[in-house]
Amino acid sequence: MHEPIFSLEVFPPKRDAPVGTIYDTLDGLEGLMPDFISVTYGTGRRSDRTATARIAKTIHTEYGIPAVAHLTAQYADREVIDQALDMFDDAGVAAVLALRGDSVEGREPAGVFEHASDLAAYIRSRRPNLSIYGACYPETHPEAASPEEDMENLRIKVDSGVDHLVSQLFYDNADFLDFLDRARAAGIQVPIEAGIMPITNEGQVRHMSEVCKARIPAAVESILDRWGDDRASLREAGIIYASQQIADLVAHGVDGIHLYSMNHSGVTRRIWHNVRHLFRQVGAKEEPVSSQK
């Protein structure tokens, strides 16, 4: 049986937040040694490219962990993408996660890359040897007319050059496992990591579930109803729930787990402490788990 991979996502600090907060997060994750850390990207402004590249370089050079840089398509032209790829080359990124990106009210798309598959094809033409990651939606992309259409679009994305998929969040493993079966039946054979977002804030869970059209199952509703107003208890319940999700998914033989850290190193460390023996992590250290950042 294959060994599942374990990866994390972090994001640059908001524009009005101190830059150093991301380094506090990375310091808090030191010793976990995930297979890679992905760094999110904004809507395509130069500051987004610079921040993503800078953090990716730090992850790669100072922490010795492969970095995957997100890159969004909707508001970019070819020159912007070329500039971003040059920055990522200099940062030593291991792969690019090609995304369409969220829409911004009042901002007009560039009209060059309408879909993530268009961006993936362009990156493949410019960087033939670069690994290209893509996103997938276990419960169907919100804008897809049907699960069948969404799966066909995903197949096009893979055919365009994507060689690794990371799923959007979900809270019922049955939804991901059903999606995985359908993807394999459709001929999609690239690795597909399950994206796990820990429950730490009721408002965040409900907002993200609405944006992604991800179902909130009865078990999660019970957690939110019981501890939604008690942040500390909700965090503890969320750590347990995410750990149980991961254990079940690994037991089902998934390719890997991509944990959305939300820059909460303490929560991430607690979850890793619970599940670390389910993964083969060469060189990983047995670190204390008391950090609550």
UniProtKB/TrEMBL annotation:
Keywords: Amino-acid biosynthesis, FAD, Flavoprotein, Methionine biosynthesis, NAD, Oxidoreductase. It is an enzyme of class 1 (oxidoreductase). It catalyses: (6S)-5-methyl-5,6,7,8-tetrahydrofolate + NAD(+) = (6R)-5,10-methylene-5,6,7,8-tetrahydrofolate + NADH + H(+). It holds the Pfam family MTHFR. Pathway: Amino-acid biosynthesis; L-methionine biosynthesis via de novo pathway; One-carbon metabolism; tetrahydrofolate interconversion. One of its GO terms (molecular function) is methylenetetrahydrofolate reductase [NAD(P)H] activity. Its cofactor is FAD. The keyword Oxidoreductase applies. CDD domains: MTHFR. It comes from the Bacteria. SUPFAM superfamilies: FAD-linked oxidoreductase (SSF51730). Its EC number is 1.5.1.54. The keyword Flavoprotein applies. Belongs to the methylenetetrahydrofolate reductase family. This is Methylenetetrahydrofolate reductase. It comes from Bifidobacterium polysaccharolyticum. The gene is metF.
